[in-house]
Amino acid sequence: MKITIFNGSPHGEKGNTHFMVQALAEGMQKSGAEVENIFLSQKTIAPCKGCFTCWLKTPGKCAMADDMAELLTKFSSSDILGFATPLYVDNVTGIMKNFMDRMIPILDARFEKDASGECFHKTRLSKIPKIMVISNSGFPEPVHFQVLSLLFKRIARNMQSELIAEIYRPGGALLANHPFILKPFIYGYRNLLVKAGEEIAKNLKLSPETVAALQKPIISDEQYIKGANKSFSAALSRIKDVPRP
Q1: Closest Cα partner for 195 from 212, 179, 182, 183?
Q2: How big is the chain by its Cα radius of gyration, in Å?
Q3: How far apart are CA 121 and CA 128, in angstroms?
């Protein structure tokens, strides 16, 4: 079992997204999976030009020479692909979007229709990896992930793949840099992520019990908002000449 996780956070190893990925990878490795965590921020990935060279002139090969060719090789050799991103404007980061746009060489230009009569591009891959998504948001409510959830359901459908796990963490600012008093709660959540990683690698799905546990808030919305606003106010107070309401 080979699992490749593409981390689209600009903060790399210091980010809240990596906190989640690291714990999940630990659980996956416990179940015997080979896990690779790739930081897209450390790669050179130019924006797609929409030139269609990879479809019409050199099928399956992009016209641009950067790190994307290596990443697509890892993509196609994996059993499970993890897309890990903090939530930016209800969506993936720009780094992740560039990566996703540049995935089109794996698709054939010609249209086909699925059983429901909806068009798609058939993949060139001999083995289609399953998909999981990992994300955290600075907001405390889970509703902010609804756009991301729909996006990855569509990506799985367009790749003729399966979305086997969605792990979303509201209040993600607590993860990598949390007050000492919250340490037991964060440690408990991390243990849940390890368990989730084990289940994904072993069963290709999460149990309903694990899903329910992962969705529980770490602290109340009121506590989170109060703490976040206090932190932002303290940071702003250290900056001179900033207009304040």
Answers
A1: 212
A2: 19
A3: 13
The first and second tokens of residue 138, run together, are 């600075």
Rounded to whole angstroms, how far apart are CA atoms 171 and 10?
18
User: How confident is residue 136, by pLDDT bands cut at 50, 70 and 90?
Assistant: very high
DSSP state of 41: G
- Give the chain's count of helices (H) and strands (E): 8, 7
Which H/E stretch holds residue 36?
Answer: strand 34-39
- Whether 98 and 64 have beta carbons less than 8 Å apart is answered as no
Q: Is the dihedral of CA 22, 97, 144, 181 positive or negative?
A: positive
Task: Name the amino acid, one letter, at 71.
Answer: L
CA distances from 69 to 53, 76, 128 (A): 14, 11, 17
Kindly report, residue by residue over 22-43, the tens digit of the pLDDT. 999 999 999 999 999 999 999 9
Other beta carbons within 10 angstroms of residue 220's beta carbon come to 11
Residue 29 near residue 107 (C-beta atoms within 8 A): no
**Residue 107: count of CB within 10 angstroms of its CB:** 19
Return the bridge partners of 173, or none.
none
Structure tokens at 204: 């290709």
Confidence label for 240 from pLDDT (cuts 50, 70 and 90): low
Pair of tokens at residue 224: 């989170």
Rounded CA gap, 182 and 186, in Å? 6
Report which DSSP code applies to 180.
G
